[in-house]
Amino acid sequence: LKQRKHSSYIKELEGETDPGWGSCSLGVFICLACSGIHRNIPDISKVKSLSLSRWEDHEMQNGNELMKSKYEAAVPVYYYKPTHKDCQVLREQWIRAKYERKEFSEPGRNFTYEEGTRDGMLMKRGRDNGQFLSRRFVLLEREGTLKYFTKYDAKEPKAVIKVDSINATFQPEKIGNPNGLQITYLKDYSTRNMFVYHENGKEIVDWFNAIRAVQLHYLKVAFPGATDAELVPKLTRNFLKEGYMEKTGPRQTEGFKKRWFTLDHRRLMYLKDPLDAYAKGEVFLGSRDHGYNVSLGLPAGTHCNGAWQHGITIETPERLFLFTCEMESDQQEWVKHFNNVMNAPMSPQEYTMEAMFKHRP
Ligand SMILES: *[C@@H]1O[C@H](CO)[C@@H](O)[C@H](O)[C@H]1NC(C)=O
Ligand SMILES: *[C@@H]1O[C@H](CO)[C@@H](O)[C@H](O)[C@H]1NC(C)=O
Ligand SMILES: *[C@@H]1O[C@H](CO)[C@@H](O)[C@H](O)[C@H]1NC(C)=O
């Protein structure tokens, strides 16, 4: 009822269903988690509970589209606007960038993440020992590369990554750091995972948006006629699903082993440990009309020696893949995603990818 009274208010983040709080100075509805972020910028935002606080009449009419359009007047197209599902650092930096630093209030500003180069230190997880160490990263728009160096003044980079093959995604829980960012890229046809963070939330979110800015630049070159609205979804994106399942080998005699699975559209990767640099294997998921299929359960007679009961069978033109999930809800969710991917027709690039998978050493 109270919410209906603030009829002119709008939601701060997309997808918010149960705001519960409002900022009467900004005229936006916010959720509990975001209300904490707003409270940290008291000069700009005055937070009140929708059910517990007393609201003056003028505070209820304050909200409007105008306020939002003032603070979001010039958001660069590649800048990632978080939804309510995103992690704290993304939501917090979006709110601070908008209201506290007023980064998007005037058109024509030069953004640090748009300067064409970015050079700085990030904590990077060692591939072999799992230790996080400070490493220098350099992003160069001119070359379309992200490089990292093991020593600050090293001449040769340890790795040179083509920005157009990068997918960057925030993974605070998996990495065990609130600012943890996973960067994946293709190396010799395999997906390489890199895990980084910066103590400062603004720094890591600026790196994330700087990578997106360079990616947009390259997409514009690759697709000259495309509109921004067509290109933005091609920027780094989140994985469809991640989690543990058990799997068995091709002869189905090895026994079921617990693995971490990541579904990146048509690539289903499995790793021994969620933070491994390389997947142990990858399965390409093509479309149903090209011999791919998924079903619930395992083939009759499968010797199921694993601990988990909820089976999934994936059929590819080459072989069957058998998986088991701990819980039925996991099984249902994986199968839903596999079905969605297999029901979609394959693009020309995906045929190339399928051929690459078949001819991989
Ligand atoms: C932004 O950068 C461009 C090119 O470097 C420069 O010409 C312009 O004056 C800058 N604008 C502002 C507001 O600093
Ligand atoms: C990153 O995402 C693109 C689509 O945006 C996809 O084609 C590519 O395979 C992904 N790369 C990696 C290394 O995950
Ligand atoms: C795909 O799997 C479903 C479920 O097991 C089965 O009913 C269907 O016949 C299969 N389709 C093909 C083409 O094998």
UniProtKB/TrEMBL annotation:
Residues 1-119 form the Arf-GAP domain. It is found in: Cytoplasm. Residues 115-216, 238-343 form the PH domain. GO terms for molecular function: GTPase activator activity; phosphatidylinositol bisphosphate binding; phosphatidylinositol-3,4,5-trisphosphate binding; zinc ion binding. InterPro entries: Arf-GAP_dual-PH_domain, ARFGAP/RecO, ArfGAP_dom, ArfGAP_dom_sf, PH-like_dom_sf, PH1_ADAP, PH2_ADAP, PH_domain. It comes from the Eukaryota. GO terms for cellular component: cytoplasm; plasma membrane. SUPFAM superfamilies: ArfGap/RecO-like zinc finger, PH domain-like. Keywords: Cytoplasm, GTPase activation, Metal-binding, Repeat, Zinc, Zinc-finger. PROSITE patterns: ARFGAP (PS50115), PH_DOMAIN (PS50003). The keyword Transport does not apply. This is Arf-GAP with dual PH domain-containing protein 1-like. The gene is zgc:92360.
